[in-house]
Amino acid sequence: MSAPFRLPSGGRIDRSKPLTFTFNGQSIPAFRGDTLASALLASGKVLFGRSFKYHRPRGLLSHGSDEPNALFSVDRGPGRVDPNNRASVVDVTNGLTIETQNHWPSLDFDIGAVNDVLSPVFVSGFYYKTFMWPKSFWTKVYEPIIRAAAGLGKPPVAPDPDRYGNRHAHVDVLIAGAGPAGLAAALAAAKSGKRVVLADEQQEMGGALLHETTAEIEGKPASVWLSETLAELAGYPNVTLLPRTTVFGYYNHNHLVAIERVTDHLDRPGETIRERLWQFRAAEVVIAAGSLERPLAFADNDRPGIMLAESVRVFINRYGVLPGRQIVFATTSASAYQAAIDARKAGVDVTLVDLRTQAGPEKALAVSAGVKVMSGYTVIRSEGTKRVKALIVAPVDASGKVSGPRVRLVCDCVGMSGGWTPSVHLFSQSRGKLSFEAERDLFVPGTSVQAERSAGACRGTFDLAGALNEGFAAGAAACGSAETRNFSASPVMTGFKAVRVLPTDENPTKVKAFIDFQNDVTAKDVGLAVREGFHSIEHVKRYTTTGMASDQGKTSNMNALGIVADILQKPIPAVGTTTFRPPFTPVSFGALINLNRHGLFDPARHTPIHDWAAAQGAVFEDVGQWRRARYFPKPGEDMHAAVLRECKQTRESAGIFDASTLGKIEVVGPDAAEFMNRIYINAWTKLEPGRCRYGLMLKEDGYVFDDGVVARIAEDRFHVTTTTGGAPRVLAHMEDYLQTEWPDLKVHLTSTTEQWAVIAVQGPKARDIIAPLVDDIDLSPEAFPHMAMRSGHICGVPTRMFRVSFTGELGYEINVPADYGRAVWEAVYAAGKPHGIVPYGTETMHVLRADKGFIIVGQDTDGTQTPDDVGYGGMIAKAKPDFVGKRSLARPDCVAPGRKQLVGLLTENPQELLDEGAQIVADPNQPVPMKMLGHVTSSYPSAALGRSIAMAMVADGRNLTGKTLYITTPKGFTTAVVTGTVFFDPKGERLNG
Amino acid sequence: MVESNIIRRPVLAGRSALGSSITMTVAAPATRFILRLDPASASAVGSAGGFDVSGPINSVRGSNGKLAVRLGPNEWFLIVEDGEGAALEAAIAASLGDRFHALVDVSHRNTAVLLSGENVVDVLNAGCPIDLSDAAFAPGSATRTILGKSEIVLIRPASGDGWRVECWRSFAPYVFEFLTEASR
Is B109 part of the contact surface with chain A (CB cutoff 8 Å)? Predict the structure, then answer.
């Protein structure tokens, strides 16, 4: 296919680098430097999509990141399909495949266009009004259909094969935008030697200078000044230039986030990342974000071929593409005259219609360039469906009323301009207060709240010299300098008259004059919303959806705001302005997630024994970030069978269990015992070195917080263990008290969780199994009794060996330095084999401890249990003056009768397993809502008892011992008898092996 | 004593980074201590068991292969080649005499990756939010910080162009993979 609308010369495209891409199956030629938009226009394409609600044919509105219409699905290969790309910002690469969106069966013939005819139905808030009856239809019929019809583009289904990066960067001066103001700011800042980053969203830096073919700067053509300036900046080692990088979010403390498109502009992306997220911490920020042109609102202002006036100029000057051969400009702004002049220079027929009767010097320049200028004319409407064919205009009188016969201007392209809106998005995101200049109809940055300053068009300074001077001063000020510079630059055409909807003699309630092109919101929709009582712009926005599309209303906000203000006859600031939120333009999920995918999504913490367990076929469970072996199934076993076997074998001979994940804290210092006394409910002063104690700690509220066995290593040293999940919060809790409440205590805390691998050997054969591996620790019951700790060696490596039991069996927890863990584990396992040792996982551990009624903090407790509630009241050291939580234990509520207490439950049918979490009532026949007595906290089939066992928190539970209670099941109520919590070996005789 | 030929098996043993823009190696097993000591005592002794504890907060001081990383007002992280743990403990205790201190062996708690090359800072800044420029983090600097979702201790010894990333052993595979991915 040829490119009939490509000019023979001109533009910044590289004509020596031809490319092709595919558009809806058709091959389109392009040059390096083209965007999809410019290449398609060059090929004569103007129909780029169907609108969101009415499925109206749409073309291109803009040349930049504010484009609302031309949204394409871009296919870069398998897994690299991405919907809703703006044609105006996607650089052409060889072999791209592009599809248009939101039409069926085809772009040219779209069934959904019937919505345009039915549009009286789709007024503001139509979904709240139309789909009210019958009520039951909403979830089943209306909502699914509306959902299917709404939305733009199709989400990709294949996993994204691309990689994405992340970079934290500290900079002294971050400049957002490399137009004239941003470049001048960079020049000023560069000289300071400070770290300067200049980021710009476009492929090339320069902003408006990239299509400036008339103006001169410092006596040179703008393009020459631009390339010299960029070369100068590139020569500074302290300046980083980031093209293709959109600063999209401005957060607290000058934390700004940008996305750099690293490879999308390349034919072959290669092995590097596709996009990089930049997280800047900037000492100072210069916002030079430029401005956005306003469309004009008139009937059928959305027809393909009607675009912003400056965009016409960009396509001609920057891309060497004629958007049409017969171009009409409709404007209330001086800048469109320059566009008309440039179009005329490109050799086409140009007419300019200006609503203003009084134009500035631009009029004479345009007339002398051969532009037909019609002053004092309004646009009634456009003609044409898939491409604009004509513009119907009419003269207006001084009062703004249509005052003469209509004129039909035949055309194939319309450039419209309603003036300019400073891009205050980043400033507003920084929480700066906008101020409104009523005279010029501009919201501009007002009071700053962060270390930033705006310069150039984003501050309402539209003339070139002004923007350069302001940018330079801003760059200098960001470096603490008051230096200024006076740039010489050609005058440019500025100034506009703000008009919300062009005057018309047609019934305004019948015409579609689009305000928000992407969400298909018209001027009459906004008017209707106001008449229905939505007077705040935030309410109008939500009711009509204006400004809520992915373009964030860049081209529509001011017009919508103005319409509301006009109807309400209020000044614009009284109507308010909507809040600008990040991101400025859409950002890929890939970039936001960047490295945090697959194995890097979250650290998976493995113990030193993990790989051994995995090789044995263990099934793992997540406990926080830890992966713990849950059970070790033999072929054909399910969890139930494996756990029964593991339990049985452990109680009959021995089991080996990886307890390395237990939290460990070394408490060291002369005041260690005093510190322990204050943190735990137990007494520690008299615990001798070499002895262990089960410790329970509370939060200030008197409720159980964590538990674990503690060994006293020496007078001034404790080896504390915590629950696996509780380790970080226990250390934080202890440090908190130590640093803020008891800084006088001479004691320090060090996390040793990962210093030690912990190998639990439990069961009657435990001593026999480890004995051959140990020679410097006397394992005899007399020398090494239950709840003792001995330091020595096992397999020749140092150990802190605890004689403790969470199973009720004779048992040891062997702590060895972690790098030895695997080898010692294997040695113990080998030594245990002749004795029938079995590896067991957390599930068996849970059952074995439940046999003995030991609680698991977080399973049997939920943060509302006192020690007495779980039957551990006797552990409280009564003589201690204080400990964390002591005072709360005396609260009336904590000592009131009837509190829930931990009890055992035995079902009448011994094989019936209660559900953990099941509710408990005294009488299943009472009226609903029933009085709940409590719930089941733990429930297992016990191998030792040959029946099910359960624990539960039950109101006044211990007084109900022997009573039958009713427990919910999925099929109704079942019954169980309340018992004590120790189901197995109540006298504890097995502890001695 | 029971015969044994058990040697340390560090978590990253045998790992190497492929296609990296930096040089990345797993550090040899080390002996490590956390030493807690009042700043006044540290100033008074200057050195403990051969570890230079005279540096300011967020510094690393090293001599004879003995790195002393000051992580806080009263916290030092001591690193030395694997070996004489017990003797060092005794030497440190002897240097400090009656001065209140807490010394805890964390040799096996941590593991370390050594980085060098021009792009180290960019690679680290993929997951570490602090300013690692020469001006802000000169050779001789060290700090406790984060890399992605893992806590690390980042050490930039005064001599050589190398960096040392210390982390808890269970986070080591994550840290290694993160650095590998960031350096590809």
Answer: yes
Instruction: Give the residues across from A141 on adjacent strands.
Output: none
Taking the Cβ of residue B125 and every Cβ of chain A, the question of whether any pair is shorter than 8 Å is answered with yes
Contacts of A776 in chain B (CB under 8 A): 1
How far is Cα B173 from Cα B169, in angstroms, rounded to an integer? 8
Q: What is the pLDDT of residues A613-649, one digit of tens each?
A: 999 999 999 999 999 999 999 999 999 999 999 999 9
Q: Is A600 close to B2, i.e. CB distance below 8 A?
A: no
Q: What is the pLDDT of residue A957?
A: 97
Spatial separation of the C-alpha atoms in residues A157 and A153, rounded to whole Å: 12
CATH 3.30.70.20 fits A662-752, yes or no: no
ipTM over 0.95: yes
The pLDDT > 90 percentage for chain A reads: 90
Instruction: For residue B42, give its domain range.
Output: 23-183
Rounded to whole angstroms, how far apart are CA atoms A138 and A66?
A: 35
- CATH 2.40.30.110 in chain A is located at 896-993
Interface probe, candidates A627, A815, A819, A826, chain B, greatest B C-beta count within 10 A: A819
Contacts of A670 in chain B (CB under 8 A): 100
Q: How far apart are CA A504 and CA A510, in angstroms?
A: 12
SS3 A191: coil
Residues A266-300 pLDDT 10s: 988 777 899 999 999 999 999 999 999 999 999 99
Whether the pLDDT of residue B75 is over 60: the answer is yes
Give Cα A204 to chain centroid, integer Å.
29
Q: Which residues of A touch B106 (CB under 8 A)?
A: 750, 752, 755
**Nearest CB to A166: which of B107, B126, B184?**
B126
DSSP state of A741: I
> How many domains are contained in chain B?
1
Q: Which of A76, A72, A96 minimizes the C-alpha distance to A84?
A: A72
CATH class of residue range A14-121: alpha beta
* Model confidence, pTM: 0.93
* pLDDT tens digits, A331-367: 999 999 999 999 999 999 999 999 999 888 999 999 9
Contact A305, A384 (CB under 8 A): yes
Q: Across residues A700-728, what is the average pLDDT? A: 97
Across residues A135-146, what is the average pLDDT? 73
**Residue A897 pLDDT grade (very low, low, confident, very high; cuts 50, 70, 90):** very high
Pick among 3.40.50.150, 2.160.10.10, 3.50.50.60, 3.40.50.2000: CATH of A292-421+494-575: 3.50.50.60
Is residue A751 within 8 angstroms of chain B, CB to CB? Answer: yes
The answer to whether A717 touches A667, Cβ cutoff 8 Å, is yes
A275 CA: distance to closest CA in chain B (Å): 13
Share of chain A above pLDDT 70, in %: 98
pLDDT score for A152: 74
Min CA distance, A803 vs chain B (Å)? 20
CATH code, residues A896-993: 2.40.30.110
Query: Which chain A residues contact residue B76 at CB under 8 A?
Result: none
Inter-chain Cβ pairs, chain A and chain B, closer than 8 A: 140
Going by their DSSP bridges, the two strands A349-354 and A372-375 should be labelled as parallel
The superfamily CATH assigns to domain A164-290+422-478 is FAD/NAD(P)-binding domain (3.50.50.60)
Q: What is the mean pLDDT of residues B58-83?
A: 93
Q: B80 to chain A nearest CA, in Å?
A: 16
Q: Does some domain include residue B178? A: yes
Burial grade of A745 (CB within 10 A; 0-12, 13-18, 19 or more)? middle
Q: Which of A775, A793, A817 sits opposite B108 (nearest CB)?
A: A817
A609-661+755-854 sits in which CATH class? Answer: alpha beta
Contact map slice: A 824-863 vs B, CB within 8 A = 824, 827
pLDDT digits (tens, 9 = 90+) for A187-204: 999 999 999 999 999 999
Please give the pLDDT value at position A127.
65
Residue B77 lies in a domain: yes
Cis peptide leading into A927, omega within 30 of 0? Answer: no
